[in-house]
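Not sure how to ask, but would you mind making up any protein sequence you like and the tokens describing how it folds?
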Amino acid sequence: MRQILKPYPLTQEAFAPFGDVIETAGRDHYLINNGSTQRFHRLADVDTGPDDGKAIISIFRAQALELPLRIRMLERHPLGSQAFVPLKGKPFLVVVAPAGDTPSPHAIRAFIANGEQGINYHRGVWHHPVLALSDIDDFLIVDRSGIANNCDEYYFADTVELWLEASH
């Protein structure tokens, strides 16, 4: 199946059904540290699900995939949220589908994060693994660790092609 996805700029409003946009633009803050630091408080909530879950912090080092990209699978984390915060300030792609038993190719949406935005996938939201647009890019990850498996993968019988315009 050939379905062309056009990536849209990542905004809090457009991404709300899938999770949170982690950014300071347009967000309230208050001063701390004797007025020398602005705190942008609670930009996203870490959901660790069942009692055995703990919030962990990791770094993923990603390599860019060849475009156009054929989307063959999506994954979800049924027991907790998963946040990606770029560490090198480079734009990256976000491909998502609503939470549910299986993702529908027709419900897939694509966004371009501007390099100053992170994202926090809500529990159960289908998403493509990290999609760097640069040769090498690093992301700070905040997600759940625990005894239970927190990653489901869904492989499409047909693939979806993601076409990215040259001016990202």
Summary: The longest strand covers residues 152-162. The first helix runs from residue 12 to 15. DSSP finds one helix and 14 strands in the chain.
